[in-house]
Amino acid sequence: MQARLVETAAEKVEADALILPILEGQTHVPKEAAALDKRLKGAIEQLLKEREFRGKFMELVPIHNLNTLPSRWTVLVGVGRVEQLDMVRLRNALQAAGQTLRRRGHRRLAVVLPKEVTGRAETADLARAATEGIGLSNFDTGSLKTRHENAVAPIESLSIIGLDGDKAASAAVKDAIVLAEATNRIRDWVNTPANAFTPSVFAEKVKEAARATGLDLKVLDMDDMRRLKMGALLAVARGSDEPAKMIILRYAGGRKGAPTLALVGKGITFDSGGISIKPSLNMEKMKSDMGGGAAVVGAMLAIAELKPKINVIGIVPTTENMPSGKAIKPGDVVTGSGGKTIEIINTDAEGRLVLSDGITYAVNEGATHIVDIATLTGSIARTLGPLAIGAFGNDPSLMDLVRRAADLAGERVWELPTWADYDGLIESEIADIKNSTVPWAGATTAALFLREFVDGRPWVHLDIAGSAWQDAPELRTVPKGPTGSGVRVMAHLAQLLADR
Ligand code: BES
Ligand code: MN
Ligand code: ZN
After folding, report:
1. Which ligand 1 atom is at minimum distance from the Cα of 321?
2. Is the CB of 348 under 6 A from ligand 1?
């Protein structure tokens, strides 16, 4: 998709559809659309005055322009109450509208941002939100349908009207296209069924995607893992007939002494639970348990294009978690590559096991900052639902940067505590630590387990078990299916860390 800021007036722009965001309760036609509405004989004004369009969040009314304008349709999109309008909500409203319009066959879109909306944020943030909102609407979940009605051509171009095209805003548009496309690519991976997305396929896909990006790729196989004594990752892999892989991507953009950021993502291509097998209801969703690993790859692909002056290593331990005669059992004790012994209480707490070897690898590679990301716990999904990432950490200044990155990304991140009072949760009777415990504080327990491996370095853990997949129609956020949670946060974090 192409996108640019234009100075063309709304009544002059050529487009298949021109989107006009309207606030809830707004009864006047925005000044930027006054001349346009004149050509429409006051249709917009009438809809607003007579309250036939109320501007409710995600309300959508298309008006045919009947050849009175160079654009074919004017589409009113509700963006809700002014005091609640932030860049997350603007992105989401535009993504939903963009998806509807794409499915109606529109390929050239324009968005008019009226003063009522632009007053809510800086120009660059608005430019990013508009570009990503529409860019993200190009993702479609039905790529495996043979008769695919919704697969009509993607949106090709976006004109953004109403922003002064300063340098920062134009740069934001360029970056936003890269970020939306990287996000959509990995949403497609997360959507792909586990029979078509094994650890080996994952590694192949990364190889294809990384070609010609300048990223350096290394894929460890199981012999390498044995040599490196990755007993935790190998323990999870035992039950599966599919060989495990460890995917390592390197971006070298930093000068000597620059920080090295490690991004470690959970790549479980299917989580059956193993011997502690999951109930069948919703088990099919566990094809998305590689969402963290995919997000790391998405972020690395974006970073390769955005070129921040920093070094970044992306590390994705990937395997299936399956039951079999060879599978690990509750009560087994395994030794990870960092040398710690781990008692396995529950084989369904496998994410933290594979991540522990990924994090140890990051430490051995000299990472100065570590961010891990994983669809780790049902606990975080129950707490925050599908609309926010849960964050845990050991370093307030890195956590602050993550929060700033999330603001830029238009993703919601919420920090949860890791007070020392919780420490007992991972203590084992017979080994150094155990992988599961009481039925409460599940997300915190997982975070404390991971913290054992970061060697005291600045670290943030992102639990995306809720946010990676949208399946709650009662929440008007992003469309159903994989969201690409975390890709943009990590890419922005690399930029912020480089500029610090
Ligand atoms: N992959 C799951 C977490 C998950 C749950 C992701 C729901 C997305 C939606 C993870 O491996 C898991 O099974 N976690 C268990 C841990 C427990 C056994 C300690 C959980 O959270 O229930
Ligand atoms: Mn599990
Ligand atoms: Zn899992």
Report:
1. 11
2. yes
CATH number, domain at 122?
Answer: 3.40.220.10
Report if residue 6 sits inside a domain: yes
Atom of ligand 1 nearest to the CA of 351: 11
**Which residue of the set 72, 229, 278, 285 is catalytic?**
278
pLDDT of residue 257: 87
Q: What is the pLDDT of residue 146?
A: 85
Name the pTM for this structure.
0.98
Ligand whose nearest atom lies closest to the CA of 471: 1
pLDDT at position 150 over 80:
no
Whether 183 maps to a domain, the answer reads: no
Report the CATH number that the domain containing residue 303 is assigned in CATH: 3.40.630.10
The response to whether residue 436 sits with its C-beta less than 6 Å from ligand 1 reads yes
Domain-terminating residue out of 144, 178, 212: 178
pLDDT band with cut points at 50, 70 and 90 for residue 368: very high
Total tally of structural domains belonging to the chain = 2
Query: Does 162 share its domain with 207?
Result: no
Q: Is 278 one of the annotated active-site residues of the chain?
A: yes
Q: Are residues 296 and 425 in the same domain?
A: yes
Dist CA 177 CA 91 (whole Å): 13
Tell me, in angstroms, the distance from the centre of ligand 1 to residue 289's CA.
9
Look at residue 327 and tell me if it is in a domain. yes
Q: Between 147 and 111, where is the model more confident?
A: 111
Residues 125 and 16 in one domain: yes
Q: Would residue 352 show up in a list of annotated catalytic residues for this protein?
A: yes
Identify the pLDDT of residue 143.
Answer: 85
Query: How far, in Å, are 22, 29, 54, 76, 149 from residue 48 at the CA level?
Result: 9, 8, 7, 10, 33
Residue 468 Cβ inside 6 Å of ligand 1? The answer reads no
The ligand with the least distance to the CA atom of 346 is 1
Distance 349 CA to ligand 2 centre (A): 5
* Assigned domain for 397 exists: yes
Determine the number of helices (DSSP H) and then strands (DSSP E) in the chain.
15, 20
What atom of ligand 1 comes closest to residue 273's alpha carbon?
13
Final residue of a structural domain among 178, 205, 226: 178
Ligand 1 near 375 CB (within 6 A): yes
- Rounded to the nearest angstrom, the gap between the alpha carbon of residue 471 and the centroid of all alpha carbons in its chain is 15
- Yes or no: say if 412 and 390 are a contact pair by the CB < 8 Å rule: no
Question: Is the Cβ–Cβ distance between 476 and 388 less than 8 Å?
Answer: no
Residue 39, CA distances (Å) to 34, 42, 45, 270 in order = 9, 7, 12, 55
